[in-house]
Write a structure and sequence with these properties.
Number of domains: 3
Distance between the termini: 21 Å
Strand content: 25-35%
Structural class: alpha+beta
Helix content: 10-25%
Low-confidence stretches: none
Length: about 425
């Protein structure tokens, strides 16, 4: 009977619009949720078989929920460098735990990049999901795979520190006074180091040993003839080196000669080549090779002694002071000693049909047959977007559109309820015929 089918069509209309209301409510509730992807409801007509041209069997409506995962939300600036957003396609690879991933394991995908560092050093987003990345080897290489998760691990920065770098190269830019009278006494290598002869000019600088400890070495210059200077390098205090007390801390010695225009003509002896600093066993440091450059910046002009600059490489150990993530997904640690080191490269997963992903916990998604398999690439490669540090992707919900849909859904629900009321009245009239 057509009245009954109309009644059932009204019920299906109530059910469909109730589902639409639930979806709209979810969208409105998550308008400020980072990385949230809105859902929508499409209505599909149900058609019953028509057995007669004089009657009609109503089929009703079927609600079909669809996700708009591929629709990107706007990127909003954040003050935290560990807040990450993706400009373009792709998803961060995350896991609900910090265990090693394997194919088919507990792997999820998300656009919610509000990451922070937890108490154990892991990068975790606001939903408690652990960010995954490719570790960077000590030589800077990265082992990647477009389909395997075996090379990926949870990003962890605990215990990361800036290693000490011993000084290897030293350069002195200074002027030696050409008007200085030549030393007329007897001179032998080591006399300036042990104090037997007072240098005409002395300069000291700080170097770092293999443990990052600052150590002082000095350079003494004494003029022994026209355009000729004897140079010595020695440790201060001399007890810092093996046998230093006997040699006065002497490390290297030689002759520095100048041209008549005040420029360096050349060097002889160990002072003009690489020499080694034999740190004493009490320092705990290993022997340290040093290359001294006296030919680039030294001059001999008729003006007072003076040092223009002294440069030395090497740094003490440093503490982690910040993290920087570049657009290619390289997560770099910055240290208090001025050095930086790449720790991880953050990969992005892409899908042929991202709208086919299934929603999971914490605003993340998991693969389905409709989405297809994932493809893992570095940022800006293989169709993946660019990672933006210090930004978050906002929800892709359009509040104005949702309120409009809310009004039309409410009206449709009311109309469906009128179908039921009208069918009920018609059935009541039918029952009244017998009376």
């Amino acid at each position: 009977m057509s009245i009954y089918t109309a009644l059932r069509a009204g019920v299906s209309g109530l059910t469909a619009n109730s589902s639409a209301l639930a979806v709209i409510s979810d969208n409105i509730a998550n308008v400020n949720t980072v990385g949230y992807k809105r859902s929508g409801v499409d209505f599909s007509a149900l058609v019953n078989a028509q057995n007669s041209n004089t009657t009609y069997n109503a089929g009703g409506v079927l609600p079909l929920t669809r996700q708009q995962i591929s629709l990107q939300g706007s990127l909003e600036q954040s003050r935290s460098t560990t807040d990450l957003a993706i400009s373009g396609d792709g998803f961060f690879i995350v896991s609900p735990n910090n265990q090693q991933l394997s194919n088919g394991g507990s792997v999820l995908f998300t656009r919610a990049g509000s990451f922070t560092i937890d108490a154990d050093g892991y990068m975790v987003n606001a939903q408690g999901l652990f960010l995954q990345g490719w570790p960077v080897a000590s030589d800077g290489s990265v082992t990647t795979s477009p389909t395997s998760l075996s090379a990926i691990e949870a990003v962890n920065i605990s215990g990361v520190g800036g290693l000490a770098e011993p000084t290897e190269n030293v350069s002195i830019n200074a002027n030696l006074n050409s008007d200085q009278a030549a030393y007329t006494g007897t001179y032998a290598a080591g006399d300036m180091a042990d104090g037997t002869v007072t240098p005409h000019f002395e300069s000291s600088l700080e170097v770092f040993d293999s443990l990052g400890a600052p150590r002082t070495i000095a350079f003494g210059f004494i003029k022994t003839g026209p355009n000729t200077w004897q140079v010595e390098s020695y440790a201060r205090p001399n007890t810092n080196i093996t046998g230093g007390a006997l040699s006065g801390g002497l490390l290297a010695s030689g002759t520095l000669t100048f041209n008549t225009d005040g420029t360096v003509a050349g060097t002889t002896g160990t002072i003009g080549a690489a020499f080694s600093i034999p740190w004493a066993a009490s320092t705990g440091a290993s022997a340290q090779p040093i290359t001294l450059d006296l030919e680039t910046g030294m001059t001999q002009f008729a003006k007072s002694f003076g040092v223009t600059s002294v440069t030395a490489d090497g740094v003490p150990p440093g503490d982690l002071v910040g993290l920087v993530l570049e657009g290619d997904g390289m997560l770099t640690a910055q240290f208090s000693n001025g050095r930086a080191r790449a720790l991880y490269q953050i990969p992005l997963a892409t899908f042929l049909n991202p709208n086919g992903l299934a929603a999971d916990q914490g605003g993340a998604f998991r693969t389905t047959l409709e989405s297809g398999l994932y493809n893992i690439n570095s940022a800006n490669a293989g169709g993946a977007g660019r990672i933006v540090s210090g930004a978050l992707e906002a929800s892709n919900v359009d509040l104005a559109a949702e309120f409009t849909n809310l009004i039309t859904t409410q009206r449709a629900y009311s109309a469906a309820s009128r179908i039921i009321t009208t069918a009920d009245e018609m059935l009541e009239e039918l029952l009244m015929i017998k009376r």
